[in-house]
C-alpha cells in the first residue's frame, strides 16, 4: 500500500511509521504545521506540532529512509479547531479540540489531500484498532486500555475508517512502544507525551480564553439565585468545576460548591452542592457513525470523557438526535463534550452533548 504517515514528532507516530516501513509499505511522512506562532517552540511536554516537533519528525523520516514533507494547514486549523473552541466556550459549552482536530484536520483535510495525491490510506500513532467484525470494518478500543484513544476517534465516518491505519492498536503498553523506539534507534524514544491543548503551549487555558474573548463580568449565584461571587467571563467556567471559583460567600454547610450551570447570555454562573451535578439523561446532537447508522433503541456503553469510564446505558438514536439513559447516575457532565457509544469494545458512533437532566 502507499501510505501517508502523519508524523507529529512524538514517539507514537514515529513507531507507527517504522512498523509500516518494516511491513513493506511505500510510506511518505508528513508533519502538520498547524500554527505560525513562534511561541509554539517548546521543550518538555507542552503542546504539539511545534518547531521542535517538526525537527524531530524530520529526523525520524531520515532514519527510516522515507520522503518527508511539511503541510501548512494552519489556516484551516484556525478556522475549524481554534475558532470552534472559542465559539463553544462563548456559548457556555466545553469542547474537545483534539476530537475536533481528528474530525476536521487529520481525517478530513489530510485524508482528502492524501487520496487526491494517490495514497491508499493515512496512518497515525493513535491507540485504537480496526478489525473486520461480521464482515464489517469496525473501530475498536486498543489492547492497552490505559492508552486507548478510540474516544477521540469516534467522530470518524465509515469511509474515513476504511482509509485509516492505526499500527499501535495492538501495543501492550506505552513502555513497549518506547522500548521499540529505542531498539530502532529513534531519538524520540523517551520524549515526554504531549498532554496540553496544542494551540495553548503555556497550558493556561483560562488565560488563553481571557486573552481571546476579553472580560465580560457577571455574577456567580447559588442554587437559590443569591449572589455569592463575581466573575470576569463565563468562558472561564465549565460544569463540574470546583476550583478557581473565588466565592465571597461560603456555603451554609461549609461543603465545597461546584459549577452547575453556565449562562453566557445573562452572564451568570450557577454553583451548588455536588448532588446537583447528578445526570441520568443525556441529550446529544450531530451524531456520526463509525459504521452503519445504529438507529433505534439498544443497550450499550457510553463514554463522555477522553479518559472516563464507560457507563452502561439505554441509547435511543434518531437521525439528528440521540437520547441516552444511564443505568446509574453520573456527575458533572458538561454540554459540548462528546458522548461516544460502544458495543463492548466496538465504537458505534459519537454525538455532541447538548443537554443533561437528573
The CATH homologous superfamily of the largest domain is called HUPs
- Which stretches are poorly predicted, pLDDT < 50 over at least 5 residues? 40-47
Strand order across the biggest sheet?
Answer: 12-15-14-13-16-17
Alpha-carbon Rg, integer: 21 Å
The number of E-state strands comes to 17
Specify the CATH class of the largest domain. Alpha Beta
Mean pLDDT: 92
Structural class: alpha/beta
For the biggest sheet, the summary is: 6 strands, antiparallel, barrel
Q: Give the CATH architecture of the largest domain.
A: 3-Layer(aba) Sandwich
Q: In percent, how helical is the residue content?
A: 10-25%
The sequence of SSEs as H and E is EHEHEHHEEEHEHHEEEEEEEEEE
Q: Under CATH, the topology of the largest domain is which?
A: Rossmann fold
> Which outline best applies?
globular
Question: So how many helices?
Answer: 7
Q: Strand share of the residues?
A: 25-35%
The count of domains is 3
- Gap between N and C termini, in Å? 50 Å
List keywords for this structure.
single chain, 358 residues, alpha/beta, Rossmann fold, SH3 type barrels, Elongation Factor Tu (Ef-tu), domain 3, 3 domains, six-stranded antiparallel β-barrel, disulfide bond, zinc ion binding
Question: Care to describe what's here?
Answer:
The chain has 358 residues and is α/β, with parallel strands linked by helices. The protein folds into 3 domains: 2-125 and 167-183, Rossmann fold (3-Layer(aba) Sandwich); 215-272, Roll (SH3 type barrels), CATH 2.30.30; 277-357, Beta Barrel (Elongation Factor Tu (Ef-tu), domain 3), CATH 2.40.30. Helices cover 24% and strands 31% of the residues. The protein has helices spanning 11-22, 51-64, 74-90, 97-116, 158-162, 174-183, 205-213; strands at 2-6, 26-33, 68-72, 121-123, 128-133, 136-141, 164-165, 218-221, 227-231, 258-263, 268-272, 278-289, 296-303, 311-317, 321-331, 338-343, 346-357. The strands form 4 sheets. Strands 12-15-14-13-16-17 form a 6-stranded antiparallel β-barrel. A 5-stranded parallel sheet has the order 3-2-1-4-7, sandwiched between helices. It has a 4-stranded mixed sheet with strand order 9-8-11-10, with no helix packed on it. Helix 1 (11-22) packs parallel to helix 2 and helix 1 (11-22) crosses helix 6. It is globular, with a radius of gyration of 21 Å. This is tRNA-specific 2-thiouridylase MnmA. Belongs to the MnmA/TRMU family. One of its GO terms (molecular function) is tRNA binding.
Amino acid at each position: 500500500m502507499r501510505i501517508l504517515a502523519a508524523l507529529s514528532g512524538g514517539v507514537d507516530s514515529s513507531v507507527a511509521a517504522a512498523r509500516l516501513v518494516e511491513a513493506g509499505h511505500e510510506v511518505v511522512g508528513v508533519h502538520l504545521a498547524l500554527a505560525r506562532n513562534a511561541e509554539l517552540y517548546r521543550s518538555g511536554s507542552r503542546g504539539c506540532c511545534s518547531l521542535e516537533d517538526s525537527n524531530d519528525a524530520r529526523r525520524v523520516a531520515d532514519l527510516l529512509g522515507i520522503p518527508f514533507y511539511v503541510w501548512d494547514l494552519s489556516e484551516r486549523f484556525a478556522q475549524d479547531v481554534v475558532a470552534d473552541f472559542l465559539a463553544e466556550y462563548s456559548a457556555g459549552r466545553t469542547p474537545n479540540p483534539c476530537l475536533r482536530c481528528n474530525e476536521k484536520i487529520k481525517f478530513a483535510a489530510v485524508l482528502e489531500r492524501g487520496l487526491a495525491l494517490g495514497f491508499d490510506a493515512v496512518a497515525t500513532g493513535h491507540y485504537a484498532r480496526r478489525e473486520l467484525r461480521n464482515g464489517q470494518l469496525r473501530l475498536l478500543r486498543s489492547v492497552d486500555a490505559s492508552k486507548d484513544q478510540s474516544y477521540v476517534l469516534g467522530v470518524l465516518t465509515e469511509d474515513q475508517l476504511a482509509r485509516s491505519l492505526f499500527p499501535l492498536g495492538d501495543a501492550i503498553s506505552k513502555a513497549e512502544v518506547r522500548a521499540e523506539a529505542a531498539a530502532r534507534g529513534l531519538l524520540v524514544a523517551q520524549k515526554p507525551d504531549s498532554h496540553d491543548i496544542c494551540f495553548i503551549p503555556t497550558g493556561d487555558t483560562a488565560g488563553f480564553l481571557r486573552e481571546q474573548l476579553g472580560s465580560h463580568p457577571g455574577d456567580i449565584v447559588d442554587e437559590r439565585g443569591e449572589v455569592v461571587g463575581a466573575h470576569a467571563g463565563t468562558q472561564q467556567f465549565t460544569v463540574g468545576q470546583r476550583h478557581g471559583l473565588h466565592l465571597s460567600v461560603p456555603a451554609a454547610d461549609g461543603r465545597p460548591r461546584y459549577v452547575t450551570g453556565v449562562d453566557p447570555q445573562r452572564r451568570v454562573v450557577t454553583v451548588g452542592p455536588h448532588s446537583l451535578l447528578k445526570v441520568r439523561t443525556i441529550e446529544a446532537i450531530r451524531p456520526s457513525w463509525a459504521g452503519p447508522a445504529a438507529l433505534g433503541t439498544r443497550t450499550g456503553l457510553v463514554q463522555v470523557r477522553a479518559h472516563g469510564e464507560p457507563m452502561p446505558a439505554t441509547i435511543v438514536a434518531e437521525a439528528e438526535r440521540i437520547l441516552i439513559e444511564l443505568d446509574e447516575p453520573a456527575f458533572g457532565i458538561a454540554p459540548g463534550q462528546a458522548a461516544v457509544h460502544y458495543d463492548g469494545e466496538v465504537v458505534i458512533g459519537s454525538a455532541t452533548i447538548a443537554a443533561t437532566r437528573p
